[in-house]
Amino acid sequence: MIAVFSNLFASDSHWEAVILRKILFSITQKKELTVYSGDEHLRMVLHQIEGIRVSEECLKNVDFVLSKDGRDDVCAKPEILFDYERYLKTKNAIGVFFWQKGRPTIRFSKKRLDDFHLKVRGELTKFVSSI
Predict the structure, then answer these.
(1) Distance, CA of 111 to CA of 52 (rounded, Å)
(2) In this structure, are residues 58 and 36 in contact, taking their beta carbons and an 8 Å threshold?
(3) What is the extent of the structural domain holding 89?
(4) What CATH number corresponds to the domain at position 81?
């Protein structure tokens, strides 16, 4: 029974990694990114993504911050959050990714992207809103 749950969670992490890769690399032209997260699970997922270097601290060279709760705003970097309510309230939150009814939901803020001189490219442009 434990092996079944273990595989299920591994599968979830795999899909999170696929979606996060798509999100992060649709925002930038860089081939390699440095990402900070204070969340252990997110760091584990980020380690699965080719082209992502995980930083232990939010330093000057960090490209993005990933935060489950919007409280990793220790530096003035663009953030991807995983809680929609926090996304609406967090000034550095350029995007949000969360599961709704078993489906991934993605949103980007045009205004906040503009504040960081970023632009979503490719098929994810349809998820940019005026917030």
Answers:
(1) 26
(2) yes
(3) 2-129
(4) 3.40.50
Number of structural domains found in the chain: 1
Nearest to 124 by CA among 31, 23, 46: 23
Write the DSSP symbol of residue 31: S
| Residue 116 per-residue DSSP state | T
Closest CA to 48 of 72, 12, 81, 5: 12
Tokens of 33: 């990114």
Q: Which residues, 6 or more positions from 31, have their beta carbon under 8 angstroms from its beta carbon?
A: 51
pTM: 0.84
Digit-by-digit pLDDT tens for the chain (131 residues) are: 333 333 334 457 788 899 999 999 999 989 999 999 989 999 999 999 999 999 988 888 999 999 987 665 567 899 999 999 999 999 999 999 998 888 889 999 999 999 999 999 999 999 999 87
Q: At what angle do helices 2-27 and 40-47 cross, to 10 degrees?
A: 70
Helices vs strands, H then E, count in the chain = 4, 7
Residues in contact with 23: Cβ distance below 8 Å, sequence separation at least 6, in sequence order: 80, 95, 97, 106, 124
